[in-house]
Amino acid sequence: GLQLFVDGEQYGNIDPGDGFFSTARQHAVPHASNWLRGTFYISLGLRVGGVHDFADDIPEKPWRNRGSKAMLDFWKNKATWHPSCMKLKSILIEILVFVALCRAQNGGENFEVPTPTVEALQPKGFRIILKDDGYSFVGFRININVDFEDGLNDGQINKDNTQPRNGYWVYMNRKEKLNVGDTIYYWLYVIKNGMGHFVTDLAYEVTHLANENQTPPALNSRNPSSLDPVDPSCTVSKTLVQGKSRICKDALIFSEDFERANLEELKQWAPSILFPGEPDYPFNVYDPNKTLRINGGSLVITPVLTESIYGKDFIYNSVLDLDERCTGVAHSSECRMEALGAQILPPVITAKITTRYSFNFTYGRVEVRAKLPYGSWLLPEINLEPLEYSYGYNYDSGLMRIAFVRGNSNVAKKLYGGPVLADADPFRSELLQEKIGTDNWYKDYHNYTLIWKPDGLDMLVDGEMYGTVDPGSGFSERAKKYNIKQTSSWNKGTIMAPLDRMFYVSLGLRVGGINDFDDNTLDGKPWKNTESKATLNFWKAKDVWYPSWSNSALKVDYVKVYAL
């Protein structure tokens, strides 16, 4: 909820009840389905008038909120309101932002809380143990392999205890299956003598699995977290990770091996559920149902025909509404499509997952072991995507391809990696690096690596470097000869702009589109990139391309990200 104060006095409290989303649905608020999760920033400003904040019944108000001449009428009455503004020689905005951490307002002394003991158990579970010191409440907030971005959210697991047991406060979990190398991130809220205290930025890296019946190791308040940020041996890296203040050189900052029993255990990933649009307009919709699974320690994304789920003629005369599951812009073409004439619904359903809500970083070494899809007009998406469109939409803010191979057999020996900084060629592929394989890349698993540095990019496959990208004096200089409009915004950043902001990992599979398959280089291509019937003509040629999809899945064994 929310609490509101002025000069230290509380004047309001807002209780979300079952959630603002539930309340908004009762009032048919159209954008409520898009209320998922995110972060906020502080803004300070001053604005004038407008059509919502001053009711029409305010005396001497010179405009009507619904009037088409509202701004004009406001200005015509300058003589009445401007003198009141001139009385203020200056406007001073002084703000103090702080987190009270729920401490009592009686000025009592703070207290120290020792670092708890954490144990990973076999075959499943873990426990967190805190020795009692007169506490009346201990709340546990826990994430598995996902760091807390702000240190104060509820996390994947939360438990509040009001009674110690035999002199200890214990949180016991018997559901989570942990492996060596996993990390338990957690924070505590402890109350003692009416005072509240937060213990944040705690983490425990699993090095072994203990038997639940064993005696826990001795509690020692001087034992730091296994990821203690004040480690004197830490050499600070140039890598930045959202939510962390200090990253050690060469540290493993993200790891996913997909050794999970089901998709629900993928806590570090969120699915994209939407109709992808500009600038590439692929011929698929992203929906994880029936297209995304875990098998044998690998993530598997398999394309399926829309008609196999919804019926033969569905794509010609129906509406496909992703409703509340949609992760795109609510009530837009990202969430709802209707077939109309030659504009059929996407004939293929695929999947895409990202770390957007759990892991974002700037600079590092990304390693992905994957088996790429085979099949005409299939495209793997193993990318880094921008968290925010700081330099503009689409590829104006950049994208980095870790591995990109077209699924057509006659071009499947060509591997590409590197940045994409424009919607269309020739600059779209200008910076991509190419590696010709001895065989088609989709035939086996390979280790694809991208090293993202403050002064360039390196691309490797199976440990062998096959390309580097040097920004020189800035990518904007290289783009000028192609008349790329967004170069002026890149000049506001570093020489790596737009590749100097926070990015996240994305894994997906898409089909066709209007930019990645040139009209003049691939025989048998059933559509033209500039035609309005591209999707329809692609679908009409199903009998030609669909037989090639016998090994069409993208399989990812692991993803690891290291600090520089």
UniProtKB/TrEMBL annotation:
One biological process term in Gene Ontology: carbohydrate metabolic process
Domain of life according to the entry: Eukaryota
Limits of the GH16 domain: 209-564
Name of the protein in its database record: Uncharacterized protein
SUPFAM superfamilies from the UniProt entry: Concanavalin A-like lectins/glucanases
Organism: Spodoptera exigua (Beet armyworm)
GO molecular-function terms, A-Z: carbohydrate binding; hydrolase activity, hydrolyzing O-glycosyl compounds
Signal found in the keyword field: yes
Family matches, as InterPro entries: Beta-glucanase-like, BGBP_N, BGBP_N_sf, ConA-like_dom_sf, GH16_GRP_C, Glycosyl_Hydrlase_16
CBM39 domain: residues covered: 111-211
Record family assignment: Belongs to the insect beta-1,3-glucan binding protein family.
Any single GO CC term annotated in Swiss-Prot or TrEMBL for this entry: extracellular region
Subcellular location: Secreted
Alphabetic keyword roster: Glycoprotein, Immunity, Innate immunity, Secreted, Signal
Pfam families: CBM39
